[in-house]
Amino acid sequence: SKPLDAGQSLRLSVTRENQIRTIQFELTGSLSPFKPVEIGVTVRLTSQGVEIKEVRNEGPADQAGILPGQIINAVHSAPIKSSMELRLAIAATPLGQTLDVQIVDQEGQILKNSIEVIPKVASIAGYPDSGQDFKSVVKSEVRLPDYSNQGFVIFPSNQQAMGLLVWLAAPGPLDLEKLTSRWTPICKKYPLAILVLESTDPKSWQSVDSEVIRAMVENLASMSSISPDRILIGGYGTGGTMASRVAFSNKSVFRGLILDDAMFSNQIEPGSPDPLSPMPILILGSSGPTSRFQKNLESNQFIVLNKSSIELVTRKAKDDFIAKWSTLVDRL
Predict the structure, then answer these.
(1) In whole angstroms, what is the distance from residue 321 CA to residue 37 CA?
(2) Rounded to an integer, what distance in angstroms lies between the CA atom of residue 266 and that of residue 244?
(3) Three-class secondary structure of residue 291 per DSSP
(4) What DSSP state is assigned to residue 237?
(5) Going by C-beta distance under 8 Å and a sequence separation of 6 or more, which residues neighbour residue 48?
(6) Secondary structure (3-state) at 162
(7) Which pLDDT tens digit goes with each residue over 225-274?
(8) DSSP readout, 166-208?
(9) Please, are residues 63 and 37 in contact by the beta-carbon 8 Å criterion?
(10) For 3-13, what is each residue's pLDDT tens digit?
(11) Residues 224, 318: Cα–Cα separation, whole Å
(12) What's the whole-model pTM score?
């Protein structure tokens, strides 16, 4: 067939649910860098479609009149049956254009609406406090047969679709009493499981620990209650540095990265984020990337939020912010 030039059109026919749909594309002469976009909501899947959980105050969805509890069941007249289909539809909408949605409200009425797509923002300001009151938590020591590393996991009981935060602290043995005291209040408030791992070498994190971390995450992620869109990794000091190395080596697994007074590993190159899951990064404290590395992250369209020690003075305030940010990592 004859090659097509910029400005010409390409027509594709797609069969879906025994119906043939024809899509027409206009070829461009150059590609613009990918920019993550959003409409400012969090969602959950129901039997009727994708339900809106939270709406960011003054975000695009809020300005369009979208309310929590409403269900999006179609975009641009195409049925939406999963949060991934909605994520794909948002990512495919150019900046400044609108997402034409069909909504079922709380009374069962079908409504039409249009939501403007904007660049994804790093801040989580405007989202309501998602804290809840889980009556109890489950605590357990964990080990895998082929590894010597001890792990400790804590999560709210009877909770479905929770996130998983892998936390790497300083090398050495785990203090289970301190871990329980620190993370129990978080797991009673947020739908979040916390997995803390010790290093193989009591003096430093090693390359072999990457394999242990991934194996432990895959083991826990096999639990039906862990949402794959909310698996994150983070850590303090050298644990945070190790977390950055693991995250950038496993972008398909980890949806977010948290550095708490930690530097990025000098063994990584940012590359480009996944257009559908661009792995936002939260940097706490005075450490973090060098200016060169920060520019590299931003030029590659990573979403980076810096929070100083002045903003989060106490350990409790910092942990609470970490948890809230973690529960919003899959926002659309």
Answers:
(1) 23
(2) 10
(3) helix
(4) T
(5) 71, 73, 104
(6) strand
(7) 888 889 999 999 999 999 999 999 998 899 999 999 888 888 777 776 67
(8) EEE-SSS---HHHHHHHHHHHHHHSSEEEEEE--SBTTB--TH
(9) no
(10) 666 667 777 77
(11) 29
(12) 0.86
Q: What interhelical angle do 315-327 and 176-189 show, nearest 10?
A: 50
Task: Please say if the pLDDT value at position 140 is more than 80.
Answer: yes
Q: What is the amino acid identity at position 79? A: P
**What confidence score (pLDDT) does residue 67 get?**
94
In this structure, the strands spanning 256-260 and 226-236 are: parallel
Closest Cα to residue 104, out of 76, 53, 67? 67
Burial class (CB in 10 A: 0-12, 13-18, 19+), 287: middle
| Burial classification of residue 289, based on how many CB atoms lie within 10 Å of its CB (0-12 exposed, 13-18 middle, 19 or more buried) | buried
Predicted confidence (pLDDT) per residue in 85-134, tens digit:
898 889 888 888 899 999 998 888 999 999 999 998 889 999 987 677 78
Q: Which tokens sit at 146?
A: 């082929």
Cα–Cα distance, 239 to 331 (Å, whole number)? 26
Helices (H), the chain: 60-63, 83-91, 176-189, 208-221, 238-249, 291-299, 315-327
